[in-house]
Write a structure and sequence with these properties.
single chain; about 250 residues; binds phosphoenolpyruvate
Length: about 250
Protein backbone atom coordinates (compact mmCIF):
# COMPACT_ATOMS: atom_id res chain seq x y z
CA UNK A 1 0.00 0.00 0.00
CA UNK A 2 1.57 3.31 -0.99
CA UNK A 3 0.82 6.26 1.24
CA UNK A 4 1.68 9.83 0.25
CA UNK A 5 4.44 11.35 2.41
CA UNK A 6 3.55 14.07 4.91
CA UNK A 7 6.13 16.27 6.67
CA UNK A 8 5.38 18.80 9.39
CA UNK A 9 7.41 21.62 10.89
CA UNK A 10 6.68 22.36 14.56
CA UNK A 11 8.04 25.82 15.32
CA UNK A 12 7.34 25.42 19.07
CA UNK A 13 7.74 28.65 21.13
CA UNK A 14 10.20 30.34 18.80
CA UNK A 15 10.48 33.37 16.50
CA UNK A 16 9.19 36.94 16.50
CA UNK A 17 6.19 37.83 14.34
CA UNK A 18 8.46 39.22 11.64
CA UNK A 19 10.66 36.11 11.68
CA UNK A 20 7.60 33.85 11.50
CA UNK A 21 6.22 35.73 8.50
CA UNK A 22 9.57 35.61 6.74
CA UNK A 23 9.97 31.88 7.43
CA UNK A 24 6.45 31.15 6.17
CA UNK A 25 7.16 33.06 2.95
CA UNK A 26 10.44 31.20 2.50
CA UNK A 27 8.82 27.80 3.12
CA UNK A 28 6.13 28.67 0.58
CA UNK A 29 8.76 29.76 -1.92
CA UNK A 30 10.75 26.52 -1.52
CA UNK A 31 7.93 23.99 -1.09
CA UNK A 32 4.69 25.60 -2.29
CA UNK A 33 4.76 23.76 -5.59
CA UNK A 34 6.66 20.64 -4.51
CA UNK A 35 4.48 17.66 -5.42
CA UNK A 36 6.48 14.94 -3.64
CA UNK A 37 5.16 15.40 -0.09
CA UNK A 38 2.42 17.19 1.77
CA UNK A 39 3.97 19.97 3.88
CA UNK A 40 2.50 21.28 7.14
CA UNK A 41 3.70 24.05 9.45
CA UNK A 42 2.73 24.63 13.09
CA UNK A 43 3.55 28.20 14.18
CA UNK A 44 2.83 29.64 17.67
CA UNK A 45 -0.78 30.76 18.23
CA UNK A 46 -0.23 34.54 17.90
CA UNK A 47 1.29 34.17 14.43
CA UNK A 48 -1.28 31.84 12.88
CA UNK A 49 -3.33 34.45 11.10
CA UNK A 50 -0.31 36.29 9.72
CA UNK A 51 1.24 33.00 8.56
CA UNK A 52 -2.07 32.04 6.92
CA UNK A 53 -1.78 35.27 4.94
CA UNK A 54 1.76 34.41 3.83
CA UNK A 55 0.76 30.87 2.78
CA UNK A 56 -2.17 32.23 0.76
CA UNK A 57 -3.61 29.63 -1.56
CA UNK A 58 -0.52 27.41 -1.50
CA UNK A 59 -1.06 23.74 -0.62
CA UNK A 60 1.08 24.05 2.52
CA UNK A 61 -1.13 23.11 5.47
CA UNK A 62 -1.38 25.43 8.46
CA UNK A 63 -1.72 23.88 11.89
CA UNK A 64 -1.70 24.84 15.56
CA UNK A 65 0.53 23.22 18.16
CA UNK A 66 -2.29 22.54 20.61
CA UNK A 67 -5.86 23.40 21.58
CA UNK A 68 -8.09 23.21 24.62
CA UNK A 69 -11.07 20.91 24.41
CA UNK A 70 -13.80 23.17 25.78
CA UNK A 71 -15.77 25.29 23.33
CA UNK A 72 -15.56 28.61 25.20
CA UNK A 73 -15.70 30.15 28.63
CA UNK A 74 -13.55 30.71 31.71
CA UNK A 75 -10.37 28.94 30.58
CA UNK A 76 -7.79 31.71 30.84
CA UNK A 77 -4.94 31.28 28.40
CA UNK A 78 -6.60 28.51 26.44
CA UNK A 79 -7.49 28.44 22.73
CA UNK A 80 -10.45 26.49 21.35
CA UNK A 81 -10.70 24.44 18.18
CA UNK A 82 -13.23 26.86 16.69
CA UNK A 83 -10.83 29.77 17.28
CA UNK A 84 -8.14 27.91 15.36
CA UNK A 85 -10.50 27.26 12.46
CA UNK A 86 -11.48 30.94 12.42
CA UNK A 87 -7.86 32.04 11.83
CA UNK A 88 -7.27 29.61 8.99
CA UNK A 89 -5.98 26.44 10.66
CA UNK A 90 -6.70 23.12 9.03
CA UNK A 91 -4.46 20.95 11.21
CA UNK A 92 -3.54 20.61 14.88
CA UNK A 93 -0.97 18.69 16.92
CA UNK A 94 -2.64 16.63 19.63
CA UNK A 95 -0.66 15.21 22.55
CA UNK A 96 2.79 16.47 21.60
CA UNK A 97 5.29 15.11 24.12
CA UNK A 98 5.93 18.59 25.51
CA UNK A 99 2.21 18.87 26.30
CA UNK A 100 2.29 15.44 27.96
CA UNK A 101 5.57 15.81 29.85
CA UNK A 102 6.22 19.55 30.36
CA UNK A 103 2.57 20.50 30.94
CA UNK A 104 1.55 17.20 32.53
CA UNK A 105 -1.41 16.42 30.26
CA UNK A 106 -2.89 12.97 30.73
CA UNK A 107 -3.98 10.48 28.08
CA UNK A 108 -7.57 11.37 29.01
CA UNK A 109 -7.09 15.11 28.41
CA UNK A 110 -5.47 14.31 25.09
CA UNK A 111 -8.41 12.10 24.15
CA UNK A 112 -10.75 15.04 24.81
CA UNK A 113 -8.57 17.31 22.70
CA UNK A 114 -8.70 14.84 19.83
CA UNK A 115 -12.49 14.80 19.97
CA UNK A 116 -12.63 18.62 20.06
CA UNK A 117 -10.37 18.83 17.01
CA UNK A 118 -12.44 16.32 15.04
CA UNK A 119 -15.69 18.00 16.05
CA UNK A 120 -14.40 21.33 14.68
CA UNK A 121 -13.22 19.75 11.43
CA UNK A 122 -9.50 20.08 12.20
CA UNK A 123 -7.19 17.35 10.92
CA UNK A 124 -5.26 15.91 13.86
CA UNK A 125 -1.66 14.77 14.14
CA UNK A 126 -1.83 12.54 17.22
CA UNK A 127 1.61 12.26 18.86
CA UNK A 128 2.67 9.24 20.89
CA UNK A 129 6.00 8.11 22.26
CA UNK A 130 7.87 6.66 25.19
CA UNK A 131 10.40 8.21 27.59
CA UNK A 132 13.95 6.90 27.87
CA UNK A 133 13.10 5.11 31.13
CA UNK A 134 10.10 3.45 29.50
CA UNK A 135 12.25 2.32 26.56
CA UNK A 136 14.91 0.96 28.89
CA UNK A 137 12.21 -0.93 30.78
CA UNK A 138 11.02 -2.54 27.52
CA UNK A 139 7.71 -0.65 27.61
CA UNK A 140 7.89 1.20 24.29
CA UNK A 141 5.13 -0.74 22.53
CA UNK A 142 2.91 -0.83 25.60
CA UNK A 143 3.19 2.93 26.21
CA UNK A 144 2.48 3.89 22.61
CA UNK A 145 -0.35 1.34 22.56
CA UNK A 146 -1.93 2.80 25.71
CA UNK A 147 -1.67 6.36 24.37
CA UNK A 148 -3.27 5.30 21.08
CA UNK A 149 -6.02 3.24 22.70
CA UNK A 150 -7.08 5.99 25.09
CA UNK A 151 -7.12 8.60 22.32
CA UNK A 152 -9.03 6.49 19.78
CA UNK A 153 -11.46 4.75 22.10
CA UNK A 154 -15.05 5.09 20.94
CA UNK A 155 -14.22 7.03 17.78
CA UNK A 156 -15.55 5.84 14.44
CA UNK A 157 -13.41 5.29 11.37
CA UNK A 158 -15.51 7.83 9.49
CA UNK A 159 -14.45 10.53 12.00
CA UNK A 160 -10.78 9.66 11.62
CA UNK A 161 -10.43 9.89 7.86
CA UNK A 162 -7.71 12.57 8.13
CA UNK A 163 -5.92 11.20 11.19
CA UNK A 164 -2.12 11.23 11.11
CA UNK A 165 -0.13 9.60 13.93
CA UNK A 166 3.34 10.83 14.86
CA UNK A 167 5.70 8.49 16.70
CA UNK A 168 7.92 10.82 18.71
CA UNK A 169 10.12 9.10 21.28
CA UNK A 170 10.57 11.60 24.12
CA UNK A 171 14.27 10.77 24.37
CA UNK A 172 14.77 11.85 20.76
CA UNK A 173 12.93 15.18 20.84
CA UNK A 174 15.26 18.14 20.91
CA UNK A 175 18.15 15.99 22.12
CA UNK A 176 20.05 15.31 18.91
CA UNK A 177 19.47 11.57 19.53
CA UNK A 178 17.55 10.52 16.44
CA UNK A 179 16.04 7.03 16.43
CA UNK A 180 17.64 4.72 13.92
CA UNK A 181 15.52 3.84 10.88
CA UNK A 182 15.21 0.30 12.33
CA UNK A 183 14.05 1.59 15.73
CA UNK A 184 11.48 3.83 14.06
CA UNK A 185 10.29 1.07 11.73
CA UNK A 186 9.62 -1.47 14.48
CA UNK A 187 7.53 0.99 16.48
CA UNK A 188 5.68 2.27 13.39
CA UNK A 189 4.82 -1.29 12.39
CA UNK A 190 3.53 -1.98 15.90
CA UNK A 191 1.48 1.25 15.89
CA UNK A 192 -0.05 0.23 12.56
CA UNK A 193 -0.94 -3.20 13.96
CA UNK A 194 -2.52 -1.70 17.07
CA UNK A 195 -4.53 0.81 15.05
CA UNK A 196 -5.57 -2.14 12.90
CA UNK A 197 -6.84 -3.96 16.00
CA UNK A 198 -8.88 -0.91 17.01
CA UNK A 199 -10.13 0.37 13.64
CA UNK A 200 -9.52 -2.43 11.17
CA UNK A 201 -6.53 -3.39 9.06
CA UNK A 202 -7.81 -1.65 5.94
CA UNK A 203 -7.99 1.62 7.89
CA UNK A 204 -4.52 1.05 9.37
CA UNK A 205 -3.03 0.28 5.96
CA UNK A 206 -3.96 3.78 4.80
CA UNK A 207 -2.90 5.58 8.00
CA UNK A 208 0.10 7.86 7.65
CA UNK A 209 2.58 7.58 10.52
CA UNK A 210 5.28 10.24 10.92
CA UNK A 211 8.52 9.88 12.85
CA UNK A 212 9.66 12.84 14.96
CA UNK A 213 12.74 13.41 17.09
CA UNK A 214 15.89 15.33 16.11
CA UNK A 215 15.40 14.77 12.36
CA UNK A 216 17.85 16.60 10.13
CA UNK A 217 18.34 16.56 6.37
CA UNK A 218 21.21 14.11 6.89
CA UNK A 219 18.92 11.54 8.61
CA UNK A 220 15.59 12.16 6.86
CA UNK A 221 16.13 9.99 3.79
CA UNK A 222 17.25 6.94 5.80
CA UNK A 223 14.13 7.13 7.97
CA UNK A 224 11.87 7.61 4.96
CA UNK A 225 13.14 4.45 3.25
CA UNK A 226 11.40 2.33 5.89
CA UNK A 227 8.06 0.90 4.77
CA UNK A 228 5.99 2.14 7.72
CA UNK A 229 7.59 5.60 7.97
CA UNK A 230 5.27 7.80 5.93
CA UNK A 231 6.62 11.16 6.93
CA UNK A 232 8.43 13.22 9.52
CA UNK A 233 7.56 15.72 12.22
CA UNK A 234 10.39 18.18 12.59
CA UNK A 235 11.04 20.63 15.43
CA UNK A 236 14.32 22.55 15.58
CA UNK A 237 15.32 21.91 11.98
CA UNK A 238 12.02 23.34 10.70
CA UNK A 239 13.12 26.83 11.79
CA UNK A 240 15.64 26.92 8.94
CA UNK A 241 13.85 27.08 5.60
CA UNK A 242 16.66 25.53 3.58
CA UNK A 243 17.13 22.63 6.02
CA UNK A 244 13.37 22.04 6.32
CA UNK A 245 12.96 22.04 2.54
CA UNK A 246 15.78 19.50 2.24
CA UNK A 247 13.99 17.27 4.78
CA UNK A 248 10.65 17.52 2.96
CA UNK A 249 12.41 16.64 -0.30
CA UNK A 250 14.42 13.78 1.23
CA UNK A 251 12.28 10.87 0.04
C1 LIG B 1 8.98 18.03 17.69
O1 LIG B 1 8.88 19.06 18.35
O2 LIG B 1 7.96 17.45 17.33
C2 LIG B 1 10.32 17.52 17.38
C3 LIG B 1 10.40 16.38 16.77
O3 LIG B 1 11.39 18.30 17.74
P1 LIG B 1 12.94 18.13 17.28
O4 LIG B 1 12.93 17.85 15.79
O5 LIG B 1 13.57 19.43 17.61
O6 LIG B 1 13.48 16.98 18.05
Amino acid sequence: MSRSPIVGGNWKMNLSLGEAEALASEVRHRLGSYPGAQTLIFPPFPYLQAVAGRLGDSPIGLGAQDLWYEGKGAFTGAVSAAMLVSVGCKWVLIGHSERRHVFGESDEIIAKKLRAALHAGLKPVLCVGETLLERQAGQTFAVCGRQLRTALQGLQRSELEHLVVAYEPVWAIGTGLVASPEQAQEVHADIRDRVGDILGMDFAAKLRIQYGGSVKSSTAAGLMTKPDVDGLLVGGASLLAEEFAAIVRAK
